[in-house]
Specification:
mainly alpha; globular; 502 residues
Amino acid sequence: MQRPESPLTPLAVARLHRLLLILLLAVFGYALAVPIWDADFWWHLASGRWIWHAGALPQSDPFGVFGDTNPIRSETVLKGQWLGQLLFYGLYQLGEAHAIVALRVTLLLTSLLLLHQRLRLAGIGRAGALAAVALVGLCLQGYTGDRPQLWSILFAALTFWLIDLAEQRQAPRLYWLLPLIALLWANVHGGVVLGGVLLVLHAVMFWWSARHAASESRRMARHLVAATVLFGAATLLSPNGLDAYAYIFNLQGSELQARTSEYVSALKIYQLGHLQLQLWVAIALLLALLGLAGLLRRAPGKAVLIGLLLALSIESFRYLVFLLLVASPYAAQGLQQLAGRLPFRPLSTGAGLAAAGSMLIASLALLLATSGGTPRSGVETQRYPVHLEHIVAPLHGRVFNFMNWGGYLLWHAPSLTPYIDGRMLDEKQLIPYTHMLWASPQGKLWFEQADFDWVLLPYLDQYGEIYGLNPYLQRHPRWQAYARDGNSILYARIRTGFNAGN
């Protein structure tokens, strides 16, 4: 059956594709520019400030919140992201929250652009490439937390873009950029461990398939294996070295992992309230599974890579981003193989591109309509006690605090010592924290023994239930409400000669 002629010239099709890609990235640039909401951002920022002024990496918790009860975890958390934290601090000094949001948008859009280039290198048609970028962009709405993890997202996309470009151009010299990426990656975020595992898997499968191929393919495989070995060695050129791998191993199945929302299955993020995001994620997982099926015979190495990332994503939403940005081009090739067995062919002409573009624009218009019409930058004030910031900033002493506000206090009130923060250098503090927050009988004993100077917490939880510590303190003869704004409330311990109301 002969394909219908396109009413558009090849040049017009290329221009239409470029225009749709620009529109797509512009819409996602807006949608991804949400205010800072991630509670962990603030302790990363405070850590960057400390490293900058100290001119060294911390040997123990520089904020005095945690002891060194878990040496591997302490070393990894305190030192393993130092370069990413310094970059955050430098940018924040230049443009505060707006500069951080701009960095996030830039890193995620660059990752999407690299994905688009890989899709085209993989032989995916223009309409298919735009559709894949749109779906991945919709899923990236779940990765707008401002953490050094953003650099892992970029470096994962960059690593496999270099690999695909080298293979498409038969240019093994490009492989030798991989150790440089590993060196930077290892000092900004621990995601380099997973990146190294994926690279090793890809290199081994590529070498295996090239054993009896032409001499040029064998030469490419030798270069890739050698560059992969150097990549692995470069990951050790960081303050943590092998501890980064030990940390990942020890985290698996731990109580901390079980209590952390980002480790929930990608099939269960609806339980966290992400109903619309769950739809896009479910579609992405289904298409990846179908793509895997299409590659089993023709490219088993790529199928194995997809299978591993699918398994990790189903276990934890944290790893889904690697499936999206690393495996999507391979999954798209598998889907193309499946489509080739159908009695009809999807249009890849200008008309098909125009039809795909129309659907994309309609979908993204819906995204814009549901994302709000106000400028999407700055700080999400509902998540932090921002209206008490000027009161809290000059305070001294120990404070029992809402855990999600610990990092915020490290940055905004450096003379206060929070009880807990998102770094969780000692996960054993989670149990007494929970008991004290809800004022259980054991929690009251722990609270009185701790002899705090201040308490800062929300009055209500997300379900409208009053945290038990609030009524306990309001009835307590030695505690007094010092300041309140909205759902944030600050209590002060009444000591001899001190009136908390003054």
